[in-house]
Amino acid sequence: MATLSERILGAEAGTYVDRKVDRMYVHDGTGIQTKLVWDRLGGIGVKAPYRTYVIFDHNTPANTSEVATLQRELRDFCKKQQFHFSDVGAGICHQYMAEGRVAPGEIIVGADSHSCTLGAFGAFSTGVGTTDMAGIWALGETWFRVPESIGIHLHGHLPQAAEVKDLALWYVGKLGMDGATYQALEFIGEGCAGLGMSERMTLSNMAVEAGAKTGLFYADSVTETYMAAYGTLCKQQEPEDCSYICELDVVLDDMVPVLAVPHRVDSVVPVHTHADTELDQVFIGTCTNGRYEDLARAAEIMKGQSVSVRTIVAPASRRIYQQALRTGIIETLVEAGCTIIPPGCGPCLGNHQGVLGEGEVGLSTANRNFKNRMGVGASYFLSSVTTASVSALAGVIADPMEVL
């Protein structure tokens, strides 16, 4: 019997295959670089513009005149090629694609390492470099080495103070930053049924932090209900009795709030070990934790209180932003003293809209805390939205288990 990656790619693990790409996408940063490579190929045609997406999310709005000029050139190119194009404010590319633009069983390739997020839909979704993406624009297909798979068995339910982000950081810490290199993570077990699509996307998103090509869930009734809201059909997938290269058993009930401490994602410890660490900034957002459920959780914790440190919140997409506006979540966060920035990546990659200064300490719901990534000379911890929210109120790292 086959793993989900083997079923989608149609070959055994370790095999090299050429496959048509069902959806291909880039953002403003990688889109510019992909176009430069494509130009060097001699201006050959684009094979499948109707399957090609360009989503502005990294430097949005543009932070320099040079960036603005490059973005204008990419806009003009997309119009000429008749790509699906989403401009400033549409949201983070992975979230935008998740809003009715992908389906189970598809092969999806994005020019961003966190393209593995869409494996939450039962798709084989992975990231590639811009040179590979230029070739995919030209051919509509690419090659893959079918990965071996690691089975992560989920059992039980998460306690109140813990979230799937804590689980995501935990498994990265368990596997190590290169412990799943060129492998696929499959999330299986009865515990999966209790996780919504937002939570599944968070777990799949972090797969690359362990070196994995993708992180997959089998499409089920939860997937079907989510996709129906976008008018998209969903074919459910049943797990088969397959062999994994490695297996982890996780009792969700035992999960506690954790942190990834500077400057490695796999340096994971319980929150209480760094309690009372003074903070200069808290950031809630990114492709890992900027979804509606995340904003709602933050608002629930902060309602009627005020943050004690500058707190930046970035909705992951315009659709999420609108929903949070309609339901009063944005108002609650603003009343608590949070700063809301446009849908997109924000300060996650250290370009603008909240970059940390030298010597400052931050707490972020992002997926990476590499040295100098979010600000030269700064340090920051990774956490769940719950931990980030209680810490924003306290002005120091706070353990949700002691607060909630």
Radius of gyration: 20 Å
Structural class: alpha/beta
Note poorly predicted spans.
Answer: none
Portion of residues in beta strands equals 15-25%
Task: Describe, in plain words, how this protein is organized in 3D.
The chain is α/β, with parallel strands linked by helices and 404 residues long. Strand 3, helix 3 and strand 4 form a beta-alpha-beta unit. It is built from 14 helices and 18 strands. Helix 2 packs across helix 5 and helix 10 crosses helix 12. It starts with a helix and ends with a helix.
Q: Helices and strands in order, then pairings?
A:
Layout (H helix, E strand, L loop, with lengths): L3 H6 L6 E5 L2 E5 H13 L11 E4 L9 H17 L2 E3 L6 H6 L8 E4 L13 E4 L2 H10 L1 E5 L2 E8 L8 H12 L7 E6 L8 H9 L8 E4 L3 H8 L17 E6 L6 E3 L7 E3 L10 E4 L1 H4 L2 H11 L7 E4 L4 H9 L2 H7 L3 E2 L20 E4 L14 E4 L2 H10 L5 H4 L1
Parallel strand pairs: 2-3, 2-5, 3-4, 5-6, 8-9, 8-11, 9-10, 14-15, 14-17, 15-16, 17-18
Antiparallel strand pairs: 1-7, 12-13
